[in-house]
Amino acid sequence: MNNWPTKRLGEITTYFNDGNWIESEDQSVDGIRLIQTGNIGLGYFIDKRNKSRYINEKTFENLKCTEVFEGDILISRLPDPVGRSCLLPRLDTRMITAVDCTIARFPTKSLAKYFLYYSLTGKYLNEVEKYLTGSSRIRISKSNLVKVDVGLPPTITQKKIVERLDAIRKAQEFCDAQISKTEELFESILTSELDSKNSWNIKRLNDICDVRDGTHDSPKYHTSGIPLVTSKNLKDGEIDFINVNYISVEDHNKIIKRSLVEKGDILYGMIGTIGNPVIVNTDTVFSIKNVGLIKFNKSNINNYFVKYFLHSRRLNNQITKMSRGGTQKFVSLGNLRNLEIPIPTKDKQKKIVAKLNIVQGYKKLLFKQKTLLKELFDSVLYKSMNGEMDR
Question: CA-based angle 241:229:267, to the nearest 5?
Fold first, then answer.
C-alpha cells in the first residue's frame, strides 16, 4: 500500500463545473454537439456518432452554454458507475456537455491523465460511494464530487504511471484497430463471395436443412442441473455457459423430444438479439429456448458455409424485413425456415469457408491478445496506484 498524501478533487483542478441543462426542445439536427453521460466510459470516450444530439449557435448563446474542448476531463455524476471519467478527444466539431457531466480541467496534461487512470481504481470509486445520494436514481452532486479525495504521488511518479499506462493503452488501441480491419475484411469477403452470385441455385433454408426451434415454455429454474441456452448465450461465435439458467433433467428430456442439439448443428438467436449463429462444438448437454436449431442431413451442404451466410448482408436484409415485435424483436420459425440461401457446389462452399476461416482464426488470436492486454493493464494499474512499481 502507498502512503501518498491526498487532496480533494476541487483542490487539484483549475476549473470544475457542471455542463448545461439542455431540454429536448432545445436540440437541433446539427450544429454544436452535445456530449452526454452515455459518451463517458470507464476511462475512455464512447463516440456514439450516429446517436449524437446537437444545439444550434443561437441556443448556445441564449442558454449561455459552456463549451468543452479536446483534453477536458468529463466526469459522470450518474451510474454506472458514478464518477467514471473520460478524456475528451478531438471530434472536429464544437462541443458542450450535459448537466449530469462535470467538466474538470487540470493545470497540466500529465495531472489530467493521472486522474483519468486514478478514477479507474477501487480507492477512487469507494471514495465516490461515500457521497452518493438517491434511491431509485443514484447520483453524486457536484458539491460532493468536489470533495472526493485523490491520492497524489510525487509529480515524477505521476508521470511514470501515465507513461506506462499510456503505452499499454496504445497497444490496446492498435489491437482494436486490427480487430476492426479484420471484421471489415470478413465482411468484404462475405459480400464478394455471397452477395453477387446470381447464378447459384436459390433454396429455402428448410429445403436444405432440418430447421427447428427450442422450447417456448418457461420451465422452472434451479441452482444446478441442465443448462438452458437462450439468445443471450450466443456470443462471438460461441455458447456462453457462464450466465445460464438451469433446468431439471425431466424438463430437459421433454425439450429434446422437439429439439435435440448435437455437434455440428447451428444455433440462431430468434428473439431479442437476433442472429449470432453458433456451430455447436461441445460435449456439454444442454437445452434451448427461443433459439433456432439448424440440423444438417444432406452431405452436399457445408454447415460452416451456412453459418457464414447467416452473417451476410443478404441474409440480414431478409431478417430485417421479417423481424417483428416492438421493444423486443423476434423472428418466427416459419420465417427462419423460409430464408433464401444461394447454394454453390460443395467444392465452392469449401473454398469460401477456407477463406473465411483464416480471417476468423486471426480474429480469435486478436481477441486473445485483447484479453491479455486488458489483464496487463489492470495489473499495472493496480501495482502503480499502490506504489509497488515506483519504490
Answer: 105
CA neighbor of 359 nearest in space, from 238, 179, 178, 186:
186
| Contact (Cβ atoms closer than 8 angstroms) between residue 270 and residue 243 | no
What φ, ψ does residue 163 adopt, rounded to 5°? -60, -45
Separation between Cα atoms, residue 281 and residue 304, nearest integer Å: 12
31 has which bridge partners?
none
Gap between the terminal Cα atoms of the chain: 11
**Which of 383, 389, 381 is closest to 114 using CA atoms?**
381
Instruction: Give residues with Cβ within 8 angstroms of 126, minimum separation 6.
Output: none
Strands 245-247 and 287-288, how do they pair?
A: unpaired
Question: What is the model's pLDDT at position 362?
Answer: 96
Spell out a b/e string for 364-383, using b for 16 or more CB atoms within 10 Å of the CB, else e: eebeebbeebeeebeebbee
Q: How many residues make up the chain in this entry?
A: 391
Helix (H, G, I), strand (E, B) or coil at 275: strand
154 pLDDT above the threshold of 80: yes
How far, in Å, CA of 26 to CA of 345, rounded? 58
Buried-state track 326-354, b at ≥16 Cβ within 10 A, e below 16: eeebbbebebbbebebbbbeeeebeebbe
Cα 35 to Cα 75, 83, 142: the distances in Å are 11, 16, 17
Do 270 and 242 meet the contact criterion of CB atoms below 8 Å apart? no
Main-chain dihedrals φ then ψ at residue 12, nearest 5 degrees: -110, 5
Q: Rounded to two decimals, what is the model's pTM?
A: 0.84
> Which domains does the chain carry?
6-152 (3.90.220.20), 153-197+344-391 (1.10.287), 201-343 (3.90.220.20)
Q: What is the pLDDT of residues 67-113, one digit of tens each?
A: 999 999 999 999 989 999 999 999 989 999 999 999 999 999 999 99
308 sits in the region (left: phi over 0; alpha: psi -120 to 50; else beta) called alpha
Tell the residue number behind the cell numbers 475528451, with chain if given.
88
Cα–Cα distances (Å) from 379 to 87, 121, 165, 298, 365, in that order, read: 21, 11, 10, 50, 21
205 close to 211: Cβ distance less than 8 angstroms: yes
